[in-house]
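Re: beginner question about structure tokens

> Can someone show what the tokenized structure looks like for a real chain? I only ever see the sequence side.

Sure, here's an example I had lying around. Input first:
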Amino acid sequence: KTTIVEALGRALDIRVVRINLSDHTDMMDLLGAFLPMGSNDEGAPQFEWVDGVLLQAIKNGDWVILDELNLANQTVLEGLNALLDHRHTVFIPELNLEVKAHADLRIFGCQNPVLEGGGRKGLPKSFLNRFAKIQVEGYSPSDLHHICVSLHPQIEEATLQNMVSFVGELHQSVVVEKKFAMKGGPWEFNLRDTLRWAALMRLYSTSDPAHFIDTLFTGRFRSDADNAAAQALFEKVFGAKYNKEHSPLLTIAEENVLENGNFL
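And the corresponding structure tokens:
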């Protein structure tokens, strides 16, 4: 779901902002807050208002993906009401200010079925009726392979096929059959993971997919046994021994961080 919206944004050269919601998200996370910005001449702390990611998008007219919408709490849903109806505004209590959304702003809500659990809940019809509802079926392995080959032709097709197979089998083992990784769920492994994997290989100019298994997959699990099970699955699919030493050490350089804490 998210990948489709992001692909449309790239095709139309529109900035797409993805916001992952949870029960712990509040409107301050979305709209912004007063943050400490050093001290004045007397040594007293100074605070300045910093726009949140949603407020920035509202002003800029970006596309916004509200991901995992049915994990959001009632306060957030109510706070979004005026933005989603004819008013097309958002109110910021801390500033006593109502902000009119840019005419180009588009809001996309993505969610998985309530039956998947993990705190998901059925949203009120009055809220859902503010959206045009589209149900997206899962991609077949051939669909996934075609997408990956089209987007990353520099990677060998056989390697991409194995990557698609690994993500598919990981989803089947963990999410469907629940063979391992019972702690830390609910889990989801899909096209997004495969495309991130291919993008990292391209970024680091490597043809070895083992470089990022720990970064993207095994590092998310909660126990050594779960890590070992995922590594064994990698070895089965790729027919190669997994070596954690292949995993790169990722660092964030100072020049890649903006003053407000966002990444370049």
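Each token stands for a local structural state, so reading them left to right follows the chain. Residues 157-176 form the longest helix (20 residues).
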